[in-house]
Request: fold
Amino acid sequence: MIDRVSNGLLAAVAVLATGFADPRPVAATPADTLRGLAPHRAVYEMSLARRGDRSDVLEVTGRLVYEFSGTPCDGFSSRFRLVTRVTNTDGAARVTDMRTTSFEDVRAGSFDFVNQNLVDGRTIEDTKGVAHHEGDATRVKIVGRVGGAIDLPAPVRFPTEHMVDLLEAARAGRSVAEIDLFDGSDAGKKVFRTTVVIGREQTGVDDTTGEAAAASQPGLTAGHRRWTVDISYFDRAKTDNDALPDYQLGFLLYENGVSRRLRLDYGDFTLAGTLSSLETLPAGECR
Reply:
């Protein structure tokens, strides 16, 4: 169960800068959308929102800190640290500490990542790798892994590419899309096949009830177009077309890449991420 929560939250954080649409060459990524992404730091309080009768999860508390910065010219960096305490129905508790840093050069089609995962202070994952788009293929090299590079199914998208794809789809009024995602999760071995549903564009006054932090930085939220997004994650390695998703992620996405109202649904239990702090980070300039 701990692995399910950890892997899901890793993907969730990646999707804070992630979107989905028809695959396109990296060179075709809309420059205006890239320039519109806002450097920011967001803090989310994680909690158990729902549990089914058969769930062995009794309580979840934690905090996720996410930072996104960079420019289309210099590339985009993201980092997060997520600490959660999960208590089961037997009263046993585990503390997970997940740390991820990444750098993505969208113009060059490259993605560097470092993923660390600790449970009760013991390291269970420490993965460092780099992925490149090479024509129609994507190649991943994990530092220290025997066997050389891994060729991923084409086409896959990296997190910032996904963000741009989703925003372009939302602005075009699209409601459903599918795309394969690589974010370095599961020791850099997993590709997610995703199905995304985009709600209608929201206008007018933004309802920030329960997330006052969203109104604390009006430059990041006020007046920006926004959409509800629901994503279902499927393990691409599984061939059963009728298989249920590993989990589902929901959130409210602003046109500048800021997200809030996180919801992570595993079927037998659901986690919520409430935005508690939001601040603007210094923005670089393309030279």
Notes: Residues 17 and 149 are 26 Å apart (CA to CA). The two ends are 47 Å apart (CA to CA). The first helix runs from residue 2 to 15. Residues 2-280 form one domain.
